[in-house]
Batch of 2 targets.
Target 1
Amino acid sequence: MKKLSFVAIALIVSVSVFSCQSSNKKENQKTTETSALQQKVNQYATVKLTTDLSQLTNNQKKMIPLLIKAAKVMDTLYWYQTYGDWDSLLGSLSDSTVIKYVKINVGPWDRLDEDNPFVKGVGEKPLGANFYPKDMTKEEFESADISNKTGLYNFIRRDSAGELYALPYNVKFKSSLKTAAKYLKDAAQYAETSGLEKYLNLRAKALLTDDFYDSDIAWLDMRDNTIGIVIGSIETYEDQLFGYKTSYEAYVLIKNKDWSKKLAKYAAYLPELQEGLPVPEKYKKETPGTDADLNVYDVLYYGGFANAGAKTIAINLPNSEKIQMEKGSRRLQLRNVMKAKFDKILVPIADILITPKQRKYIDFDAFFNNTMFHEVAHGLGIKNTLNGKGTVRKALKEYASALEEGKADVLGLYMIEQLLNKDVLQGDIKNFYTTFIASIFRSVRFGAGDAHGIANMVRFNYFKEQDAFTRLDDGTYKVNFDKMQDAVKSLSHLILTLQGNGDYAGVAKLVKEKGKIGPPLQKDLNRLEKANIPVDIIFEQGADVLELK
Ligand code: ZN
């Protein structure tokens, strides 16, 4: 019965498409475009953002909807920062698929496709988003005499005489920020610890003044709370013109205390692991800090910049170098979102690209640990070159980020090997290796546009050369466990010495030779696309979804 009706529907559809083709060429063209856009929407799997709420107290249940309300204000502020007149953009659109994709991208430019426009007539995305006047050139900005022009918390605008000036966020957004601050203060009344209460009140004040220092310090001091929120104007990625202006965003969080305890235990091994790095003594003489504040959270709401396009699964804050020097930083691992990406993306990828015999090694704990140790491993190695070229970052210029991400990936795996040997970490190395290789396929799909993408391609090609995996005739990949360990060791050695020597030419050569997707890999990635494996996720989220009033 079901089958029959499916056939009937298929017939009706094909007939109507046919009549459409013959009678109205324009209409047909629209259908094709829409289905291409539907495919773009399909790149994102929808996930309900939630966690075990039965653990919450009544006060916590009252607090979360208030925090979500504050986070939603960040949505509206970010929409303005990235696009401008958001309502008129949405009002000009009628196709529900287009509207959906505009909302996913927070604008008419495709974040998974190098910001190319997908709405007719909008033109290219301005590099400076809506932070600067659209007609302003870099030269004009650089020669302009504006106070605080490189400030993190202002727009650059033109006055009636055409002169550039800085408009502080707290002025432009005064009434919205007041609303958000009020929600934070109301939430503070339900705070379960004095640390959280203090942080929420200081953060409310910070939103109104654009001065986040005191609240950042209070955030780092706050240790024993279960509920948390990251909120404010924070990252500068959206400003691709200069990288000065920050974007509003928010994460409403619940701490996973069991996992957090485990991570604290692993971080204590950093100095010991630093000593064991597979490089000569001089490349490991810096001492990593052991007070890495690493915690695991489930997220209940992504707001503003955090919710645009691909979703992050780890945060490291605050960004202020002054505070980092004084107090360090905090790393947050977002576990329910990692789990969603694992289920919706990594497992389906492995089902296509990993040899059937090894699919049993694809494992969420391994995926979680690989990601988490990546973060810890940023603390290993050295920050300064050994030959007077200054910091590694300065010496390696535009390649610095890609090499640093590559280092963290491979040293994360090295840490796992070591901690398994020491019996500190439990599990089978085969799970970690196989899940690691499958993760490379997931990451390279983001392309060469970002540091992680380049790092993954370099590693993929390096491991291939070292026989750490083999592509079988059936188009699947087999991990060669015995060769993996050597490959991890030699790649660690290569990256750490390139960093220590500040060897810009050497890194440029490595990226040029290995930082690209060869034809066989591209063919395999195309198979993932044909199989409609999502690239990233979007959320059903909010107080309604959580059934919290
Ligand atoms: Zn990283």
Target 2
Amino acid sequence: MPTALITGVTGQDGSYLAELLMSKGYEVIGMVRHSSTMNFERILHIQDQIEIIQGDLHDQGSLVNIIEEHHPDEVYNLAAQSFVPVSWNQPVLTGEVTALGVTRLLEAIRLVSPKTHFYQASSSEMFGKVQEVPQSERTPFYPRSPYGVSKVYSHWITINYRESYEMYASSGILFNHESPRRGLEFVTRKITQGVARIKFGMSKELRLGNLEAQRDWGFAGDYVEAMWLMLQQDRANDYVIGSGETHSVREFCQVAFEVVDLDYKEYVVQDEKFYRPAEVDLLISDPSKAKNELGWEPKVSFKQLVSMMVESDLSNLNNKKN
Ligand code: NAP
Ligand code: GDD
């Protein structure tokens, strides 16, 4: 039975990846950071089937101990401070976790278990002020937030460990992926929960920032499969993972409100508070390398994704009401 370590297992992607790996017969070890309250909402349904261990990307010793104890065949590094606006308020913490944390983990693997296959969660935020449309593995980076800058560092340190030490270290440049498990502060989930609240008369409006930003949105459940595929190849490599389509935040609102037969224009209010100091205006992927080499393609369409998220939030709120 292969063993996989997932950092960030309590996050959106961690929960889907744990499910996928278990279905493939892996023993899954999930690293969680210490907290005074449990934060296992996304993995409650599987928490008895995975081994939960404590560790933190801030703490080198904890990472070395975990790798020493488990010698995992595969490590998926999904842990990060992943919310872009927070990265301006907490740029040092973001750099410590999202950038240097990756070096700490790579060092632990290099010293203790150098044959382990390593996956780094890189991001389309690295493309930032895009230098090319669509964006592929060859597109130069121009990050626009401390988060994006941190992800560029972590991307290059992953490549550097691959080239310096011949480690199997792959990086997935994933475009935005969402699900009913998405954190409430990200725009998609904020919209779908807002739609449900308005439908049930719990809110009168939905306050958002820049409606013109365009993103390449897919379903997280599809994207974790690409992570696994990357670590099953003969050689480590980097891959862009996305849908190849782009939609604006405005369009997301329109489709989401239409699911409940409402017109977004009557409820969405633009609020300066949610604008960013520097914006990423347009993201659209060229995922052809992943299609050709990994045989990966997304299964859930944009409209299916939006409906899935709205329906889930309607059902969540309905259950809470009853
Ligand atoms: P997420 O829901 O925000 O999950 C982040 C995870 O990291 C959580 O489990 C969090 O733990 C953990 N974490 C934060 N700081 C940590 C620390 N110091 N030590 C150990 N764990 C820590 O993120 P996601 O959407 O699943 O994304 C997974 C990864 O992919 C992230 O690296 C993200 O930057 C990257 N990514 C995401 C997308 C996307 O669209 N979702 C696209 C490209 C790249 P707590 O639960 O305790 O907070
Ligand atoms: N969060 C948020 N809240 N975003 C808003 C709002 C709002 O009220 N109004 C408009 N937006 C716009 C943002 O300005 C941004 O252009 C877009 O919606 C998407 O914002 P988020 O959903 O917060 O995601 P992100 O694109 O900044 O970052 C996500 O995707 C990256 C991959 O490209 C995160 O998951 C990152 O961790 C990930 O790397």
